[in-house]
Write a structure and sequence with these properties.
By secondary structure, this protein is mainly alpha-helical. It has five helices and no strands. The protein is flat, with a radius of gyration of 35 Å.
Length: 147
């Protein structure tokens, strides 16, 4: 199996790849490691570079949309908090102002937690202690092997 190596045009370029500032195209890496038989063509490399540009553009669009959605959610939360403070009686306004000192996310989480009702329990009620049942000790039966 022949040895495959990279010959850089400029000897200083070696350090850019070794240092991690630049990466060798995956097509070349697979050829160098004998994963693919033939070296990549210029057309293949250009097609992959174009694909990478499209992916980066799509990522930028998705991130912009996510930022916009987060801003809209925060704006709606602030509007709902403002509406709640207007609807409350005057004596509760001071309490509401203390609540709004916390970040909106924590406040929204605390509002979503349902209050626990101690009167209802999903478990059945246990006896009051007048039960006299005692478990008995037992030994499991042993079976003879090879019988």
């Amino acid at each position: 199996r022949p040895r495959r190596t990279v010959q850089y045009r400029n000897p200083e370029d070696v350090w850019q790849y070794i240092g991690g500032r630049q990466k060798l195209a995956i097509q070349w890496s697979t050829w160098l490691s004998h994963t693919r038989q033939h070296p990549p063509t210029l057309e293949e490399l250009q097609t992959d570079a174009e694909r990478q540009r499209r992916v980066q553009a799509n990522v930028a669009l998705i991130e912009a949309r996510d930022r916009e959605e987060r801003a809209q959610v925060l704006r709606l939360q602030q509007e709902s908090n403002t509406a709640k403070s207007i609807e409350r009686p005057r004596e509760l306004v001071g309490i509401h102002q203390q609540e709004t000192q916390y970040p909106l996310e924590e406040q929204a989480q605390s509002e979503m937690v349902p209050e626990h009702n101690n009167n209802t329990s999903p478990l059945p009620k246990m006896g009051t202690g007048t039960d006299t049942y005692e478990p008995e000790a037992w030994t499991p039966r042993t079976h003879a092997r090879g019988g």
